[in-house]
Every structure is written in structure tokens, then in C-alpha cells.
Amino acid sequence: MKPSPSNTSSVYTLQDLVRGRVKHGFIERWNNHLKRIEELNDKYHAYITVFEKPLAARGFLSKPLKGAIVGVKDVFHVEGYPTTAGSRMFHEKIAKTTATTVRKLLQSGGAVNGKTNLHEFAFGVTNKNPHYGDCLNPFDDSRVSGGSSGGSAVAVALGMCDAALGTDTGGSVRIPASFCGLVGFKPSQGLIDTAGTMPLSWSLDHVGVISKTVWDAALITSVLSDSLRKPLFIKPANLDGLRVGIPENYFLDYLDEDVRRNFEKSIEKAEKAGCEVVKVHVDKPETAARCRFIIVHCEAAAYHLKLCGGRMDLYGEEVRQRIASGLAIPASVYLNALRARKPLTMSFRKIFSRCDVLATPTTIIPAPRLEDEHVEVDGRLFDVRTAILRNMDLFNLYGVPAISIPNGFTRERLPTGLQLVGDLSEDVKLLRVAYAFERLLMS
Residues 148, 178, 225, 266: which is the catalytic one? Predict the structure, then answer.
């Protein structure tokens, strides 16, 4: 029988582990995950580097994460191991330091079992990688996992680790989480330190978490942050009277039929649970999306122009084209995009005077097929990248927290996601709301 999340994933959550409800000891859990990697990684390409022995701190089993086994996206430096960033360029470049995020994870009782695959240099949303293999979707191996943190999502979905770290510059944690039936949390920008992480766009990058549940994501986020209470054991928010904003423009304009149906059903369920649904208008979303496009392409091009050392031939064709497009953007256009970011963000944040959270479908389509270059949605033809990013990238420009939670399946049994967005620095509030929604949608 083909492996799938329903019959191969680890059945326990981090909440089970922390609460002492997991019967297996650490060594048995480690070996079970390693066995999953040995059985499935050659096909699904979730990991680039696998650690045969746990990377863990002394006394880790007595610390908040209780020996949770975590995969880390291969943009986080881990001393003594290569940081490939999904590229052939750096497959032998050994890191001399460890990323702040990984160090905090280890100090909090996490155990790292390897470095996960990604879209080359985190510059894409499908996780089709010409150097380390395409990450395949655990629900349908003819489809993409989503990216750029696709290896992290596939590893969690197939029981290769308990949770995983990723980065999110335009949806790169939330997209693969949605496509793989998981939780993907992008916190407020700056909540988690990016030091020791290979950048894509230094002004838009966020560190995020992919996990099985919202509770798990909240716990890991808390130990990685300097400002949240540690450890954070969240409780669900009270949905009675909670104001849920539904955008009346842009985000719902083009949706796959099953994505729309699942979204509308969930909002109806929220209303029945006592939520107040409020229509809100998002100001100039197309302008915001264009600004993010300009910023990410210019900053990535500037970084890689210096990084490549004249060896751009080692880069994949897709990434080379994107870097070239960034180099073609005039400096004045980049500066104008940076200048526009603050007023666009301030305008967006005004909606939270009318609602507690904003709700959208995570992506407007389910996971596309590996060979798809274009998709038709509600009569409009999109290139795959634009379709996947449409409901994602604005929240990186705004820097606000956003989370994707599982939201049912299409008729082809592909996962869809519900995205909840909070105001800047209201990460705990958003996580509590997401926890309540998660429980509601599972009931």
C-alpha cells in the first residue's frame, strides 16, 4: 500500500509528549523516525542531510520540548554540517556556527534529526528541486508538496519527525503546510531571530513552524522567541462574540470550487459557534503584492550577485531567471517599494479595529500536479506560482502573524487550508483563536 499520512505518520503530538502520554522512550522514537526516513526519503526527498545520531543538548529530556525530534530547513546553519540552501553551489560548504533558532531549540530540549529539502535558495513555492529531488506530496505523489519549506512539511506528514522549522518570505511555511494537511505558523516579523539563517530577502524573511497541531506550533514558537512566555501552553480562545473578518475584495475573487466550499462551510460553522462575521475591505492589495515582488527580487538578486562568486552556472535555471529579473529592476523602483511598505501596512492594520482576526483560504488552489505550469481558476488562467502566492505574500509585507490550519479535503482527497491572520505582535491571541478553530473544525 502506498504510504500516506493517514497510515504512516507518528500518532502522537508534542502535547502528548509533554504531557507524558507517549509510551515510547526517546531512543525508540528516534529509531522509528530514522526508519521512516530510510523507507521513504529516496522517493519523497524530504531530507537533504540526515543525522545518524541525535543533535541534542545535555539533559534535553528534562527541558520543555522533552526530546521532541525536529527537522530544520536547510537554510539554518548547524555547526559541522553543510548548509546547502537546496543548491548544488554549497553541498560541501560546512557551517562554522549554529543558527540562533537551532541553538534555542536545542537548549529547550529539542533533538534535531536532519536538514530538510527546499525550493532552491527558498526562491519558489513548489519545492521542485533540480539538485536534491522534487518534494512529493504525501497525499498524491503526482503533485507538489508546496514550498519553499516543502521538505519540512513532507517530513512531518510522513512521520519522519515530530515538527519542523521553516522560513516564510511569501508563504513558504503556510503553503506546504496547507498542501500537506498540517499547521503552518508564520509569526510577527522579528518575533524569532533570523541570525544564522541564509536569507532570501532580509526585510521580508520570517522563521516559522510546521507541526501537526496549533498547540505544538505555539510551544515551539515560544521557546524560539525572546519575548513570549516559555513554555507557552496555550488554551483555546472563546469563539462566542469573536469578530472574524472576511475580505470582500481580492482574497475570495478566484477560488477553486472545493477550496471555496470548504472555506464557506468553516465560516458557517464559526458563526454557529458564536463568531460574528464582519465584511472588511483590504486597501490596495495588488499594490502591496507588487511591492513585495519588487523587494524580494531586488534583495535576493543583490545577495546572490555577491554570493555566487561568478558561478551562477551552478544555480538552477528557475532561480537564475528570478535573480536576473531582480537585477533588471532599477534602484529607484526598489526604494519606492520600500517607501510604500509602511503606509500600506498601516492601512491594512486598521481592519483590526473592526475584527479580531482575518480569515481567508490559505491558497486559492489545492496542490497542483508536478507538470502544471498554469491553472485555470474561476475562468482565469494563472501561472502556478502566482496562483499559489495570491493569498499569502501580502502578510509578509505587512509583517503580521498568519497561520494555516487544515480545512477539509477536495473531492480528490487533497487537503485545503484555512488561513487566520492577526494584528502585529498579537501572536498569542492568534494562536489561541487558531486552536479554537482547529478544535471546532475537527468536531
Answer: 148
User: Could you tell me which residue, 351 or 9, shows the higher pLDDT?
Assistant: 351
Q: Which domain holds residue 126?
A: 1-280+348-443
Catalytic residue of the set 9, 108, 172, 225:
172
Mean pLDDT is lowest, of 306-315, 337-346, 429-438, for 306-315
Indicate the pairing of strand 47-55 with strand 111-116: antiparallel
Instruction: Say which of 10, 63, 66, 73 is annotated catalytic.
Output: 73
Say whether both 219 and 298 belong to one domain: no
Specify whether 311 is located in the same domain as 401.
no
Mark which of 303, 337, 371 sits at the end of a domain: 337
- Ramachandran sector of residue 171 (left: φ over 0; alpha: ψ -120 to 50; beta: rest): left
Verify that 319 and 419 share a domain, yes or no.
Answer: no
The CATH number given to whatever domain includes residue 28 is 3.90.1300.10
With a threshold of 0.90, does the pTM exceed it? yes
Strand-pair partners of 94: 82
- The answer on 64 and 200 residing in a single domain is yes
Q: What is the average pLDDT value for the chain, to the nearest integer?
A: 96
Catalytic site residue 4? no
384 found inside a domain: yes
Give yes or no: 148 in active site. Answer: yes
| Tens of pLDDT, residues 85-105 | 999 999 888 999 999 999 999
Do 221 and 297 have their domain in common? Answer: no
Check whether residue 206 and residue 266 sit in a common domain.
Answer: yes
Q: Do 214 and 203 meet the contact criterion of CB atoms below 8 Å apart? A: no
Q: Is 149 one of the catalytic residues? A: no
